[in-house]
Amino acid sequence: MSDRRNAEAGASFAQVRALGLVSLLTDASSEAVYPVLPLFLTNVIGAPVAAIGLIESLAEATAAIAKVFSGRLSDRVGKRRPLVLIGYSLSNLVKPALALVPSWPWALALRVTDRLGKGVRTAPRDALIADYAPEAKRGEAFGLHRAMDTIGAAIGPLIAWAILALEPEGYRTVFLVSAVPGMLAILVALTMVRDRARQRAVEPDAATVSFHGLGRKFAAFAAISMVFALGNSSDAMLILRAQDLGAAPATVPLMYFVFNVVAASLARLFGRRSDRVGRRRVLVAGFAGYALVYAGFALARHAWAPWPLFFAYGVPYALTEGMARAFVVDLVPDEVRATAIGAYTFLLGLATLLSSTVAGILWDTVSHAAPFAFSAVLMAGSAAALARTRMLRAPGV
Question: CA angle, corner 250, sides to 367 and 166, nearest 5?
């Protein structure tokens, strides 16, 4: 019996690893593009920072809105894989087209399409991880996936740095090269990712938005997370802040590489920790860590400062990314896992729609430090609220 359970657990984690490999390759593609896109938009196309904030807000809001419909559809039909394949394919096919954009509105359209793909795949993929992961190792499974995802996110900036080191204005070359790991990701998804048989949820309509049946604990955590998301503006703002402090554009991808290496090295460790002490405690530490890092970006005055700040940024990222979704799964019935993840990220998207736009406006109208001070206050408040909310302090959460 023990041998059979071990075999089943091994097979389950094999699927988690397969999904992790798809995410690794996709993030190698995405994160080659992402650290240089704001630099391309400001240095080459001449887009204002407020426009970059608008692009990121609309892109992430599109992803979040798509997640709630995709999650409900996945639960309704009892299938995860088709939506996972569609989402990864859409994202990986559009990114290379950034090499052709003549102005920022075109970049907006492509970035929104890329994030639409993310929205289609995320809730079904995370629900599939939860379907395969043993309950006692759920945090470890999400941590493993996040670690592999973040390894790809570390590879991507290295690709960008290598290209820009050889060709300082080679932003468009970076976008074209991103097609290689993107196509490999689609191939791996097609050949290695499998669905797990499960019972369909009873849903009234996959084309409607409803949070019925998700419970008060879910609602409380989602509300706190929305406050956090209002302060968690796009990483594009951190990249612009690094350049603003005097960092050379070619070194910014290396800072992003350092951040991702730290996050990847800690994600599975923190996942295991959350399995032992509860997800809530890990998330409180993560929210508080974000507040400290953003306060550091607000107070920074020297060109060297972004290096330790990006290093430190990897710690709260590892504490929260993946763990928040695992916590959502903990709080809701099994049959509405994808719906809950989709609803959670939809609500975050409502906050995200404002966060990067507000950050861009603060940058242009108040000061370059103002967006980060504003974020730090909201993040610290969300950490305190999560620590003190009584219904989320029950054993096991």
Answer: 160
CATH of the domain at 315: 1.20.1250.20
| Per-residue pLDDT, 53 | 77
pTM: 0.73
Cβ contact 27:152 at 8 Å: yes
Answer yes or no: are the C-beta atoms of 214 and 332 closer than 8 Å. yes
206 in any annotated domain: no
Tokens of 290: 């974000």
Instruction: For the beta carbon of residue 86, count every other beta carbon within 10 angstroms.
Output: 16
Give the domain range for residue 261. 2-192+213-392
Q: Which of 203, 219, 171, 159 is nearest to 343 (CA)?
A: 219
Q: What CA–CA distance (Å, rounded) separates 20 from 18?
A: 5
What's the CA gap between 244 and 40, in Å, rounded? 15
**Tally of structural domains, the chain:** 1
Question: Is residue 88 in some structural domain?
Answer: yes
Query: Beta-carbon neighbour count of residue 76 at 10 Å?
Result: 18
- The number of beta carbons lying within 10 Å of the beta carbon of residue 236 is 24
pLDDT at 91: 92
User: Please, what are the averages of pLDDT over each run of 10 residues along the chain (397 residues)?
Assistant: 48 82 92 87 85 81 81 83 92 92 90 91 88 83 86 88 87 93 94 74 47 79 94 86 88 86 89 89 96 96 94 94 87 83 82 82 92 96 93 61
SS3 34: coil
Angle between helices 370-388 and 337-365 (to 10 degrees): 150
**H, E, C per residue of 249-291:** HHHHHHHHHHHHHHHHHHHHHHHHHHHHHCHHHHHHHHHHHHH
**What's the CA gap between 284 and 290, in Å, rounded?**
10
* CA dist., res. 344 & res. 121, Å (int): 14
Q: Is residue 397 domain-resident? A: no
Q: Tokens standing for 383?
A: 């950490």
Residue whose C-alpha is closest to residue 134's, from 275, 265, 339, 328: 275
- Tell me if 333 is assigned to some domain: yes
Can you tell me whether residue 377 is helix, strand or coil? helix
Q: Which two tokens stand for residue 283?
A: 């998330």
